[in-house]
Amino acid sequence: MDWINSTINPLRDVISFLHKKTETNDVQKRQIIRELRNNLIVFENAFINNISSDTVIENLSNEAIREAIKVNFHFDKIRPGKIAAEHISDERNKKYAGWTAGKLLDKIDEKIEELKTIKRLNTSAEKAKNNISLMLSNLYFRMKLLADFIRTE
After folding, report:
1. What are the tens digits of pLDDT across the range 77-111?
2. Average confidence (pLDDT) over 129-152
3. Helix 63-70 crosses helix 27-49 at what angle (to 10 degrees)?
4. Which residues make Cβ contacts (< 8 Å) with residue 63, sequence separation at least 6?
5. Which of 31, 56, 85, 118 is deepest in the core (most CB within 10 A)?
6. Residues 11-22: what's their mean pLDDT?
7. Cα–Cα distance between 115 and 126 in angstroms, integer?
8. pLDDT recorded at residue 48
9. How much is the CA Rg of the chain, to the nearest whole Å?
10. CA distance 96 to 85
11. Which long-range contacts (CB under 8 A, 24 or more apart) does 90-95 make?
12. Can you give the pTM of this predicted structure?
């Protein structure tokens, strides 16, 4: 998880912001933002404590996203508009310019499901032939991009 090292200090600011952002009357929006914050905290603690990929995957959650889908929540309520170049600080996220918060959340949900499925099928992510480290880093940077996008509202 060396890829997270350069983003730890800015991550603490984003987590603090997300904590304040959960103070909303929209239950679905609050749950999704809390889940995003909690998932970022999982990554932060995994880096600090040198936690295995399996444990990280077990502790990632997409339950709020799944619940929001059930009630037909409009994910762009999380942050209206489209991701612009000024929202993107990590080179690997340039391809998400023009995406909405809803589209990015869909991709985050998809990746969490995929990681959990890979772990379940292989009994351990460490045994999988997939590049789990790359998948986790991509997921982390997507989550961070979403948090940064919400923060610029």
Report:
1. 999 999 999 999 888 899 999 999 999 999 999 99
2. 93
3. 160
4. 35
5. 56
6. 69
7. 11
8. 87
9. 15
10. 9
11. 90/7, 90/141, 90/144, 90/145, 92/138, 92/141, 93/141, 93/142, 93/145
12. 0.86
What is the rounded average pLDDT of the residues 14-43?
A: 83
CA distances for 86 relative to 3, 11, 89, 127, angstroms:
22, 17, 7, 39
Asked if pLDDT for residue 69 goes beyond 60, the answer is yes
Confidence of residue 152 (pLDDT cuts 50, 70, 90): confident
Residue of 24 and 61 predicted with greater confidence:
61
The one-letter code for the residue type at 147 is A
